[in-house]
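I had to read the description of the data format several times before I understood it. For illustration, here is how one protein appears when written out as sequence plus structure tokens:
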Amino acid sequence: MELSIRLKTVAEAVTKGNRVADVGTDHGYVPIYLVKNNLSPAGIAMDVNKGPLEKAQEHIREEKLGGKIATRLGNGLAPLEPGETDTVIIAGMGGDLICKILKAKPEFLIEGKEFILQPQSEWFKIRRLLKEYHYQIEKEWFLKEDGKYYVIIKAEPAWTQPQRLKHQQPSIHEYIKEISDTQVNQAVSEKDMESIYEQYGKYLIETKNPVLKEYLEKEIVKKESIAVNLKLSIKEMESEELSGKERGNIAKRQRRYQEIQKEIRDMRKAIG
């Protein structure tokens, strides 16, 4: 069984020796790879759809790993109980859906699991949610495979062990408030970069990831083309006699033009 570069990177991001739970396991390739290569002692393969899960069961039987990898049918983290796993993997879904899955069972965030997350879109939403629950991003990967770009995030809880044990049964608001009170203030320069880090990843920016640089350079070219066309259309509209509604359209285009210019500036800052 040969994993794609994306899935192999997801699998090898898991801390060696951790038990894993794979949400949306599809055909079960990641937990099989981990257990077969002695990177994980046991796994739970979960999927909301019966068909893919049956395929996963078939592959697990073929590899004779039925005693080490369990399969469960269910939505998101619903089939999983706290304490059953050390690492949760959620890969190949939109960022918004991953956030919904995590928010649906916040006890897993409070319990302090390792998370390996590979959002297909809306990467910033993942980073924002992790920050909200006081997780730190240990490492990120930015890959290109078959012409597509992928982000993989490895996150662990930022709080200390005594704090975690104290909060076995907290309200989430009490938990977040206490951890916030203990956080070290960020430097002013880092605060200025906060939205850029959230969008493109602090680890990736600071390590000058070459694939991220390639991606951003391409995005800048696209955005600049859109900005030029917007500017031309605004000038054309301004030279005509317009109704109130049409003037409103100019204002909307001007706002969008300014937004794109900011996006371009942020991308250039991320490149460095």
User: Anything to note?
Assistant: Residues 218 and 243 are 38 Å apart (CA to CA).
